[in-house]
Every structure is written in C-alpha cells, then in structure tokens.
Design goal:
mainly beta; six-stranded antiparallel β-sheet; 11 strands
Length: 122
Amino acid sequence: MDLKPGMALKIKGKIADDCAGFVINLGQSADHVNLHFNPRFGEDCIVCNSKQGSHWGQEQRDSHMCFKKGDEVKITVTFESSEFKVKLTDGHELSFPNRPGDSHLSYLGVEGGLSITSIKSE
C-alpha cells in the first residue's frame, strides 16, 4: 500500500454474522500503527488508537455504532498529515490524530469479522 496525505482509502466489506468486532490498522507495520479502527459489538462503540512498538496510546471511543452483524459496509479513511477522517457507512464521520506523524503509510491490516470485498485508494 502507498498512502500519502490527501489520499483516501475506500474499503467495502461484509461483517460476519457471529463476530465480536473487527479491526482495520493503517501504519508502517503491525507494531507501528497510526490508525487502529476497532468497532466492538460487545461494548457498542468504536475504539480508535495508535501503537508504536508494543505500546498502545490512549483509546478514543465513539458511541456512534452504526455497524451491525451481517451488514455490508463502506468505510472511507482520508489521510491528512495531522489526522485521519473516517467516514462510516451511514455518513457519520469521526476524526483521529496522526500521533506518530508519519507522512507515508505502507501497511494495511484487517482482522476479525470483516471480509473485504474491495479496497481502493485515490
């Protein structure tokens, strides 16, 4: 992946019927994550965070949980130099700071109950 400030990553997928949540990580590697996007069904919230080495930052929680098990989803992540803007399926947008301050992202990791149907950067 080659994501630079001003670019957007559009992710489409389907949430599994039996999952507890899913994770989308953007950064340099699994240990250097600029954006950890984690909807959690059991907590009815979306958790965002960053990770450097084995150290997680402070969680940012958003109570706008528009995701449901079994749903098709569209998530657009716009990468700005100072922050990420994440547009959810229903149009709600949340922001999360680019704490490490990297100007180039080369890592995308998806875990949990989200099956990706398409990924597009522009």
